[in-house]
UniProtKB/TrEMBL annotation:
SUPFAM superfamilies: UDP-Glycosyltransferase/glycogen phosphorylase. Belongs to the glycogen phosphorylase family. It is an enzyme of class 2 (transferase). The keyword Lipid metabolism does not apply. This is glycogen phosphorylase. Its EC number is 2.4.1.1. Keywords: Allosteric enzyme, Carbohydrate metabolism, Glycosyltransferase, Pyridoxal phosphate, Transferase. Phosphorylase is an important allosteric enzyme in carbohydrate metabolism. Enzymes from different sources differ in their regulatory mechanisms and in their natural substrates. However, all known phosphorylases share catalytic and structural properties. InterPro entries: Agluc_phsphrylas, Glyco_trans_35, Glycogen/Maltodextrin_Phosph, Glycogen_phosphorylase_DUF3417, Pyridoxal_P_attach_site. The keyword Chloroplast does not apply. It comes from Streptomyces canarius. PANTHER family: GLYCOGEN PHOSPHORYLASE (PTHR42655). Residues 13-120 form the DUF3417 domain.
């Protein structure tokens, strides 16, 4: 008979073993090898059966075994040492506490998904893994972060394959009682909840569950509570599931409910209130509206509250294409706000105005979550240097009149949490070389001097490590492949061939990621005969391990998966190429270390960052990638290969794929496989080992999440905290009034006359040209504006490139018509065609950039005609 409900009956731990519960409930175990080793020693079989999850392990250990351990003095000494180490980690000063005063007292970090560990499956792909790594690195550095997300009862889907290779989705129900979570409770012991008002007098309630990620609390909101009606209970059912209204309610709960959860957590625990709110993608953008509503309830008007909220908000975009952004019908959003729904104190039109695409090329009836995120945040960033550039172009319409490079979106290149992704064998080699503490510092804080010791590791040790990791991957692949084929309906008698799949001495290529079309899962299949020759080469064969999930609604992605699976099923090559279903963190942690080459071939520039290659690099795996995302920024021939791209505007997609696939095959045939298989005098692939060494020593410190979080602190969190403190209610009111006055008066701002002291159309390098500009400011004063000269080399259409901006100074008093004279020198610091223009911008000490208001005045055509020349 089948049970109608399941739950776990936990044993009562004997007093000497009580610290095991604290160790299991703090997710630091997921990146702390000694703690995992301790749990494994409790019951090696139980540890394997629990999938490396200590909470599940403790729920399955027999009382007799617990009693035995309670009397085992050696085990108790290890337990005490682990508990003391955790206490020191949680309470001691770390990097953040050693910095100068002025950093934020706390930062709230919102994300729709978090990939902390396979034991808490609340992620779908790179966005969630990045958010999890951000929390872990913040914990290691001592950054006072509070994570905020949703608890999805089904998580993301589990993937299996049909007999003919078609992706099938399964949604196992997750029981919060079996997860490493605790329920946040009020002082009287009742569950802490947040509530949102819905149209028609209904409500959406959610309880607050807490996952402790080292020093960082992660608050997860769960709408599956008895107080909700059936529809509302299902709001947090699936990650990225459901229709538009379902997604809107999820994002309202995340943003608005998330702020309320943070307030509740701080009230109950005494944790400092966040001074900075960081929204990871647009899904959590409504958090800014809730904070505006809080300030309005304290007596501030909407515009002043908006300025106060913007100052302390950071927005990170991960999307390189408009289609990747959540957009909702304006009527749907409007229905969920206002007097009969949520945030009744804010006019619905003010809410809608924050997200509407009111710029050329926008859809005026759609509410865009990323646009709202940018309008509600004074600081924004992309996640690699190239992605920052792509984002500035994509959102340039929000700052009309400014060149894309001046759009106020910077970039902080993603990083990965090394203690999570570095194989224990790699870590042990580092510990032998530089000691435990220095190795831990190298992985958490970074900085290159801690990685220089890699140069001293003997070639033989490096090569033996690489082979060990490859051998472990081969065994893992065979086990997973056998399980997959059983799920596809094969019997054991059909599967004898799996024992010969992959070879620990063959060059191994990994490719694992989500399967949208732009990531081009099947580019490697473009010329199947050529791929077969590579796989089956008699002297220099390659083998490929592939994994990835297509979104449940993406039949195109599922067809790509099926195409790859059918090729890998071919008896001629199935020992050399495999597809592993159900890609997730547990698989990834085995896959990255065991590969020699990490392959990435997206359509450039559609990969925002692509952190999987970073995780591979930390294990000595070399990257083979299109110059996109982080690889565009840090590629060097010392530690990998760049696949040439055919991204000219005249190249049709099929031809582009043909060209880039051919380039991929050429690199493998002519440069990569010869280098892997060639042997030096000691019988080792000396040049390959040197590339591994360079990957670890040069790339290692760059790709760390510790480096990333330090950049966020220095470049975004600290300035946002200063802005938050500066924008008191009175200051915010003054700034809002100034902005309103400037916007109203801006049509009266003009450049009326421009003249130079140059007398010819040529000039000498190192000289200067005097510039005199007469401007009209209408109702504004000189303190409200900055008049600038913009100069630099010009292209064939007289567009200024690589511009230099110089403020001009007011000279004298207004003329009879009220116009002001501004003067300044132009330094001729480069040769060739050279040009200049002038412009007027608003200026205020509390603006984060000159482009913040999107207002700029440049000379009219009549003024340009009399302004002099372009110098050639």
């Amino acid at each position: 008979m089948k049970a109608i409900r399941r739950f776990t009956v936990r044993p009562v731990l004997p007093d000497p073993l009580r610290p095991l519960s604290d160790l299991a409930r703090n997710l630091r175990w997921s990146w702390h090898a000694e703690t995992r080793d301790l749990f494994q020693s409790v019951s090696p079989e139980g540890w394997a059966g629990a999938g490396g999850d200590p909470v599940r392990l403790l729920g399955s250990v027999r009382p007799a075994r617990l009693a035995e351990l309670a009397g085992d003095r050696r085990f108790l000494r290890r337990l005490t040492a682990a508990a003391d180490d955790l206490d020191d980690y949680l309470t001691g000063d770390r990097w953040y506490q050693e910095q100068a005063d002025g950093l934020p007292a706390a930062v709230a970090y919102f994300s729709p998904e978090f990939g902390i560990t396979a034991a808490l499956p609340q992620y779908s792909g790179g966005l969630g893994i990045l958010a999890g790594d951000h929390l872990k690195a913040a914990s290691d550095l001592g950054v006072p972060l509070i994570g905020v997300g949703l608890l999805y009862r089904h998580g993301y889907f589990r993937q299996t394959l049909s007999r003919d290779g078609w992706q099938q989705e399964h949604y196992p129900v997750l029981d919060p009682n079996e997860l490493p979570l605790t329920q946040l409770k009020e002082a009287d012991g009742t569950p802490a909840q947040v509530s949102l008002a819905l149209p028609g007098g209904k409500a959406l309630r959610a309880r607050i569950l807490l996952a402790q990620v080292g020093r960082v609390p992660l608050l997860l909101l769960d709408s599956d509570v008895e107080e909700n009606e059936l529809g509302e209970r299902g709001v947090t059912d699936r990650l990225y599931g459901g229709g538009s209204e379902h997604r809107l309610l999820q994002e309202m709960l995340l943003g608005i409910g998330g702020v309320r959860a943070v307030r509740t957590y701080c009230r109950l625990t005494g944790h400092p209130e966040p001074e900075v709110f960081h929204t990871n993608e647009g899904h959590a953008g409504f958090l800014g509206l809730e904070r505006i509503a809080e300030l309005c309830a304290d007596g501030l008007d909407f515009d002043s509250a908006l300025e106060a909220v913007r100052g302390g908000t950071v927005f990170t975009t991960h999307t390189p294409v408009p289609a990747g952004i959540d957009r909702f019908d304006r009527e749907l959003v409007g229905r969920h706000f206002g007097p009969d729904a949520e945030l009744p104190g804010i006019e619905v039109q003010r809410v809608l105005a924050l997200g509407m695409e009111t710029y050329p090329g926008g859809e005026p009836n759609l509410f865009n979550m990323a646009v709202m995120g940018l309008r509600l945040a004074q600081r924004a960033n992309g996640v690699s240097l190239l992605h920052g550039q792509v984002s500035r172009n994509m959102f340039a319409g929000l700052w009309p009149g400014f060149d894309a490079e001046e759009v106020p979106i910077t970039s902080v290149t993603n990083g990965v949490h090394a203690p999570t992704w570095v194989a224990p064998e790699v870590l042990r080699l580092g510990v032998r070389q530089i000691g435990v503490q220095r190795a831990e510092d190298a992985l958490s804080v970074g900085r290159s001097e801690r990685w220089d010791a890699v140069a001293d590791i003997p070639d033989q040790e490096v090569w033996e490590l690489r082979r060990t990791l490859r051998e472990q991957l081969v065994l893992e692949v065979r086990e997973r492949l056998r399980a997959s084929w059983r799920q596809r309906g094969a019997g054991d008698a059909e599967l004898g061939w799996i024992d010969g799949v992959l070879d620990p001495d063959v060059l191994t290529i990994g490719f694992a990621r989500r399967v949208p079309s732009y990531k081009r899962l099947t580019l490697m299949l473009r010329d199947r005969d050529r791929l077969m020759e590579l796989l089956l080469h008699p002297e220099r064969p390659v083998q490929i391990v592939v994994a990835g999930k297509a979104h449940p609604a993406d039949d195109g992605g599922k067809r790509l998966v099926q195409e790859l699976v059918r090729f890998a099923d071919d008896p001629r090559v199935r020992h050399r190429i495999v597809f592993l279903p159900d890609y997730g963190m547990a698989m990834a942690q085995k896959l990255y270390p065991g590969c020699d080459i990490w392959l990435n071939n997206p359509l450039r520039p559609l990969e925002a960052c692509g952190t999987s290659g970073m995780k591979a690099a930390l294990n000595g795996c070399l990257n083979l990638s299109v110059l996109d995302g982080w690889w565009d920024e840090w590629f060097q021939p010392d530690f990998g290969w760049a696949i040439p791209t055919a991204d000219g505007s005249g190249t049709d997609p099929d031809r582009r794929d043909d060209i880039e696939a051919a380039a991929l095959y050429d690199l493998l045939e002519q440069r990569i496989t010869p280098r892997f298989y060639e042997r030096g005098r000691a019988g080792l692939p000396d040049r390959w080992i040197e590339m591994v060494r360079q990957t670890l020593s040069l790339l290692g410190p760059k790709v760390l999440a510790g480096r990333m979080v330090r950049e966020y602190v220095d470049r975004l969190y600290a300035p946002a905290a200063r802005a938050h403190r500066a924008l008191t209610p009175d200051t915010a009111r003054d700034l809002a009034e100034w902005k309103a006055r400037v916007r109203a008066a801006w049509p009266g701002v003009s450049v009326d006359h421009v003249e130079t002291t140059a007398t010819t159309a040529t000039a000498e390098l190192g000289g200067t040209v005097g510039l005199r500009v007469r401007v009209g400011l209408g109702e504004l004063g000189p303190d409200d504006v900055e008049v600038q000269a913009v100069s630099g080399r010009v292209d064939a259409e007289d567009r200024i490139t690589d511009a230099t901006v110089v403020p001009l100074k007011p000279a004298g008093t207004p003329d009879l018509e009220g116009r002001l004279l501004y003067e300044g020198p132009l330094s001729l610091d480069r040769t060739g065609p050279y040009g200049y223009t002038v412009r007027i911008l608003p200026t205020h000490p509390l603006l984060s950039s000159a482009a913040e208001l999107g207002l700029v005045t440049v000379p009219s055509e009549e003024v340009v005609e009399g302004a002099g020349m372009v110098l050639r």
